[in-house]
Amino acid sequence: MPLSILSKRFAVFANDTRLGFRLVSRKWKQLDRTQRKRIELSAVLSLLPLSAAIAALAAVPTAFQLDESQMRPVIEAVATPSIAEQVAELVAREDTHVREVRVQRGETLAALFSRLGIDDASALRFAQTDASARALVRLAPGRFIQANITSDGRLRWLKAHGAGELDGVLATSRVLTLDRNSTAAQVFRVSESDVALERRVELKAGEVRGSLFGATDEADIPDAVAQQMVDALESEIDFHRDLQRGNRFRVIYEALYASGEYLRAGRLLAVEFEVGAKRVSAYWFANGSKHGGFYAADGRSLKQAFLRSPLVYTRVSSGFSSSRTHPIFGYDAAHRGVDYAAAAGTAVRAIAEGVVLFAGWQRGYGNVVEIQHDGKHASLYAHLQSIAPGLRQGVRIGQSDVVGAVGMTGWATGPHLHFELKVHDIHVNPLTAELPSAQPLAPTQLSSFAASAAPLREQLALLERVSIAFDRPR
Ligand SMILES: [Zn+2]
Known about the structure:
Structural class: alpha+beta
Shape: globular
Helix content: 25-40%
Number of domains: 3
Number of helices: 13
Radius of gyration: 24 Å
CATH class of the largest domain: Alpha Beta
Largest sheet: 9 strands, antiparallel
Bound molecules: zinc ion
């Protein structure tokens, strides 16, 4: 069994690694337990280059397999990098992190900086006024922007990439870089370059302490991947309600590299999440549609006909580390719906496709939208600050389309979304109602799904063993 051989090798290496860690000076002991664990895990995953191994194998993503003959040389090569050096580098990187976003339509540089968590007036002033940074000011929607920032929001560097999709042919990408230059009088410097792109597969593991996005930050998982984790599993997990401290997760995703340096995240390939005793997973599969889709291990489609929540779970809506976010006040029959506390202006989505039954003002409800989904189901969204433009009776709407923004119109004492679900005109509890699921995979596609998911499952299992091994109290 290749796996058992692998795990033995992991165990041997794990011991070596830990020995190595013990040798690393006082600096190591000064770190708190969380930081140590995080560095250990990331060091293990980068040193042992499981991700590199899989990256090499994943050059032809459909064909990669974890077989012993392919894994062995990689594992044996592992002992060569200096552990002390790697740890020192990880420690040095400790106080900064990289955030990654895509430019939104009509977004200003100031808004983009704030979304990236940059709190640096001189950097913003430079980007807005310097002639060489002008290309940056013309923010094209969809463009990837990355920023390396310190924990107090100071910008170290910022990179703007082309807006190309990962699916396309990989060649080169034009990158504009804004660097903080610590030596020269000129504090910032702009450079442009063409970089050759390379696709790799990354494996990461993490544990929820506050919010999901806090946990993905800690595990060094890009936001674009964290959001795909939510999208893939939101029919299985209600991220607003179900997440608890100690929930563990593992992910496999594609990333783009240029000249050996991480460029940006690509597609999520697989995710496994433990929520209490429940364990859910999702595997990406090229099902013949344009963007493929996510499926459970048994081939069940995770794209549901109905979303569980009308509010999307994002970094902003989830807060950074607060557990107070998104309280939901449970259903009671007299109240006929569920209330979600959320900041005014938060986007409200249609939980399924349908036709607008009503969009306008009603006493008590304030601005309200009601949607008929199929012969059976209807949903209602009330107290909206505003209704999406063009939404009126008879208009067709797609799943996840924005119906309006959270507000406090009508009889509401604070901003919240009042949400109702009806089955054959009778109110039901949206939190527990049985909802119709989407089309399953055709039987003819099931075997190719199983073949593409199998190596990912093995990798997730391996990742679980590695992360548990490093989590034992000592
Ligand atoms: Zn209500």
